[in-house]
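> run fold DUF1918 domain-containing protein
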Amino acid sequence: MRATKGDRLVQHGRVVGQHDQVSEVVEVMGTEGNPPYRVRFPDGHEAVMSPGPDCEVRHPDKER
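> ok
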C-alpha cells in the first residue's frame, strides 16, 4: 500500500451496518509512500495509522 499527501484512506466497516471511515493523509511517515501515515478525520482529529487489509487508498486524481 502506497500513499501520498492528500490521498484518502478508506477503512471499510467490518460488520453489517458499520459505515466506512474516510480520512485524509496529511503526512507519510514511512519510506517511499509506505505506512505509517498521519491522517486527519472529518471532525478534525488526527491519528497515526498503519492500515490493514480492510483499508484502501484513493488517489484524488483517479476519483470520479
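The beta strands are 8-11, 21-28, 37-40, 46-49, 55-58.
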